[in-house]
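Example S7 (structure tokens).
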């Protein structure tokens, strides 16, 4: 799949350059509280976010124009190239800083789409980091942060990376948190859930009263203390997402029943479940067993945070 916003260079005149490469890790919402609706139509959120050891890969071959090619397992599900967040983020940055160099982006799409893993947002953030590297920009500069906020709610935290709490629409980022590495299993029953549908169903499944703000454990807290803090806060979107896609409940029950699983819950607006394990061997064994039992599901054992 190829999308070009400007014509590529004529045959034989392309620059001989080495592409720049960025990893676009999956974003995992370990907690997610949905609070009041804002005047702009978005909800106030609070979420403890960590990033996984799995993700997409984005390369940028510097040159004239701005274009995108998408390949990989989930390329066909990524939608029209012109609407891809890689190009939208690049355009948002170009409006702020005219004259920037870009070129052709090559996206290896490894994460399922509309899965609550922030794949598109991670890709957009990777595009901004690549543009910053190519043009000598500070990765946390005002123009990059503004472009991230314009592109999508999850893009700022994906640009910053690191475990942290995000609030507001997603534009308010807490300080980076030092967490132990979490061994986890991601399970997606190959269901696509659009975020707007999940939020539209939220009112019928609203928890009352809402939980208070997430409090990170003390510095040097053990994995068990972190797991307890995370377990005390849920994901407000899990119930509405499960109502829309009952397979989510089946994935949750299977994860929760796995030996060594300390906690299983939805990440983001779904449909991916994340199971947290204290030991890597238990996570690997659980992922292997679940994948064998449900060959149509997308199952990966990963590391979070750390």
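Recovered sequence:
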């Amino acid at each position: 799949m190829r999308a070009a916003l400007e014509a590529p260079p004529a045959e034989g005149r392309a620059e001989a350059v080495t592409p720049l490469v960025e990893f676009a890790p999956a974003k995992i919402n370990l907690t997610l509280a949905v609070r009041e609706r804002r005047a702009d139509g978005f909800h106030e959120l609070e979420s403890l976010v960590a990033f996984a050891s799995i993700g997409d890969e984005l390369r940028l071959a510097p040159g004239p124009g701005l274009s995108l090619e998408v390949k990989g397992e989930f390329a066909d599900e990524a939608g029209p190239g012109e609407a891809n967040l890689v190009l939208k983020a690049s355009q948002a940055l170009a409006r702020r800083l005219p004259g920037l160099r870009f070129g052709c982006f090559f996206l290896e799409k490894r994460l399922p789409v509309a899965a609550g893993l922030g794949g598109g947002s991670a890709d957009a953030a990777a595009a901004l980091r690549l543009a910053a590297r190519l043009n000598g920009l500070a990765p946390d500069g005002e123009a990059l942060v503004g472009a991230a906020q314009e592109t999508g709610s999850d893009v700022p935290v994906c640009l910053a990376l690191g475990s942290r709490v995000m609030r507001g629409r997603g534009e308010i980022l807490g300080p980076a948190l030092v967490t132990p590495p979490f061994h986890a299993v991601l399970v997606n029953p190959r269901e696509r859930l659009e975020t707007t549908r999940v939020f539209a169903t939220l009112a019928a499944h609203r928890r009352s009263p809402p939980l208070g703000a997430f409090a990170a454990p003390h510095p040097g807290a053990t994995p068990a203390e972190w797991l307890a803090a995370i377990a005390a806060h849920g994901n407000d979107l899990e119930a509405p997402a499960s109502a829309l896609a009952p397979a989510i409940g089946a994935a949750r029950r299977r994860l929760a029943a796995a030996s060594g699983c300390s906690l299983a819950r939805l990440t983001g607006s779904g449909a991916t479940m994340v199971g947290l394990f204290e030991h890597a061997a238990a996570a690997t064994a659980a992922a292997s067993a679940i994948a064998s039992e449900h060959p149509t599901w997308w199952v990966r054992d990963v590391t979070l945070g750390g």
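Notes on this example. The chain has two domains: 2-173, 182-304.
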